């Protein structure tokens, strides 16, 4: 008589259900590199495969594809990581070193924004409302508002040298951010390095400073 023994292999447990906000964040994370690569033509089927979910799951948390694309733009604009890095820069370093590190952080952040915005704008899918979805707005957050928080963190990097500055740290942070934005424009023949940008910003184009007469 054959003895019937129970299997010692533990039963496979199903992963706990993810809340809607967590599901949205996971889908956006999977979608971002695809949006940069394919633009607005990326399919929800491709995004679903990248996220390891069924395509229908996307539409349980997003009303349509435009809402998903807008969420990708909003995620690209989030400055949490950039601000945390700016705030971690040691103020014991010389101002030139502080700003060079800050330039690297900000240029990476702005490049991400530009990549996503460019991919969506080229297909005319950036900033378009969804009139057929009451209460749903697919327009991304304002870029100027998104850049305000890192600008404050940049101002803090100037603060230790306030007594040696020609302008207030807040105004210099604004000017520095504008310089970084213009330097990152596509098609520049020979982009300036972070160090070159900082040197140009702090000391100007002349090797010897002379006041205008």
Automatic annotation (TrEMBL):
Listed Low complexity bias regions: 1-10
Every HTH tetR-type domain range: 21-80
Stretches for region Disordered: 1-20, 124-143
Keyword entries, A-Z: DNA-binding, Transcription, Transcription regulation
DNA-binding region: 43-62
UniProt-listed PROSITE patterns: HTH_TETR_2 (PS50977)
Alphabetized Pfam families for the sequence: TetR_N
Protein name (database record): Helix-turn-helix domain containing protein
Organism whose genome encodes this protein: Streptomyces silvisoli
Taxon lineage: Bacteria, Bacillati, Actinomycetota, Actinomycetes, Kitasatosporales
